[in-house]
Amino acid sequence: MALIEIKDLHASVADKPILKGINLTIKPGEVHAIMGPNGSGKSTLSNVLAGNEAYVKTAGQVLFDGKDIDDLAAHERACAGMFLAFQYPVEIAGISNMYFLKAAVNAVRKYQGKDQLDAMEFLDLIEEKKKVVQIRDDLLARAVNSGFSGGEKKRNEIFQMAMLEPKLGILDETDSGLDIDALRVVADGVNALRSPDRGFLVITHYQRLLDYIVPDFVHVLVDGQIVKSGGKELALSLEDEGYASWVEEKGA
Amino acid sequence: MDLKDLREKAAADFKANGFPTTKDEQWRFTDVSRVANTEFSTEWTAASVDFEPLSKIVLVFENGKLSRKKSSFDELPKGVCIGSILDLVDPRIGTLADSQSAFVSSNTACFSDGAFIEVPEGVQMDTPIHLVYLADAEGVALHLRNFISAGKGSAVTVIEEYIGQENATYWTNAVTEVFVADEGSVDHYKVQCESASSFHFQTLETHLGTNAIFSNHTVTLGSVLGRNDIRGKLAGEGGEAICNGLYLLKDKQHFDTHIFMDHAVPKCNSHELYKGILDDKAWAVFCGRILVQKDAQETDAIQSNANLLLSRGAKVNTLPQLEIYADDVKCTHGATIGELNETALYYLQTRGIDPIKGHAMLTFAFANEVLDEVKCKTAKTYIEGLVHDWLENASI
Question: What number does CATH give the domain A4-250?
Fold first, then answer.
């Protein structure tokens, strides 16, 4: 069964149509990349999928794990196994990263009918996940993303993803603002989380990230529609030719 | 001036000036006519209000009078003097508190009891002193007077806690004078959980010597109408005053915080962080005045006031006031009134946290910042518990 099936998805932001009929199916174990120029609707797609109420689905259907997600709020989608790594992770003063992670892990476990982790079990889980995504202890003790560098914020996103063990990880321009070392660390984390029952949707403007997270499929998004799909070599040709020919062809 | 003369003079001052009205600049937003127009009795009764002692050293006042039975202050470090202000005398009593204030002068004229704390030179007390003021008498005025003196190089922690019986109508009028000598340190907390129908007014006056440290955390939850006047005088170089506070108000509560920090000499720091969470039709007033006198070069003064409104009917007046007469100073102030950050709420949601829990987490986080500088663990745990309980019942 497909992990997520997006059928003819249309969406608007502030009454302005952005997505104009997206079709995309991701199976467990697959990594799909979506590439596109600025304003093509990349972030809208990730936010519509994650359940951001500022983004309104106007037509089409999204099946996650075979179920329509229309009636699920953002937190229910997260609990059902969807994870959005933010382009700009939010700083939250006054809540420690540890407390935040524990609240999140236990919220997801509760929804899935699992027992709550106590303090010791939670610390064990932290130690286990630190082997997958290295994160400094002081970042865990500090307030969520507060005063973190760009790289630390993105690493924190991937660490959260490791902790929450989603079925589908959506990476919204995770590479933006990262230097090559930080990019590699983040990519290593994602690669460590790849598994036969987990899918990824990697949204990016640049081909660079895909050198490190090698996708199974690449889709080109222009003006709210996927105009071409192919294998990883498509990303390389985009790198050479740019988006210009696609944009012209669509008459945008 | 002995106490008798002091009281007579204060009574005359009060008679001459009377209560302030909203025509007074300092009382523009706080109408005290409900206090001024009520005849309060001073008849004493015992109080039956529960409390939790936060220390081995605890002084309990029942409806304005020290209860020796409920108190415990026998085992004290050598030289430390603690007891009723009626039994212990210090010529400095009444010299600090602003005699022009109607609340101070009526207190001086009428105070029925209060705590006297004197820590001699060099004595660093590890055990906090818990002062508990219980109130359940209907229609009484409780004039409480506290005196705290920390000698040179000494250190003491004092937790003032006001607890009222639900729905009792009374008027607490407290004055606390604090002297911190050179290199001394006073860590002061005030927790106000008065009855929801009471009136609560307190003036806290502090005098700091050279390199002295005064740290104050004020948590306000109770009273229908009230005000804290927090006044500090940095009178010796290298002094540091930290005045942080949190007010959590609901229903038709009105609470006013007036801070006056007087930088009289060079090289002193003062930090003020005040936060408020307001629900229903609550109304908060914050006025923070920092005076940097001509000679007070190299002053470092930071003030901020942030308010979170949980309801459309809640209201805040915030007035930062800087008066700077020196030229080499670092002074900042800021005030905000707002609602919870929707982006942060969405972020929590995408991590599986439902909006109700997310609101509670963000609201607690907003309040919690005020407690960052709390040094006394006992006080921190206790105050966090109070904040949690309040938020449980708020409309979030």
Answer: 3.40.50.300
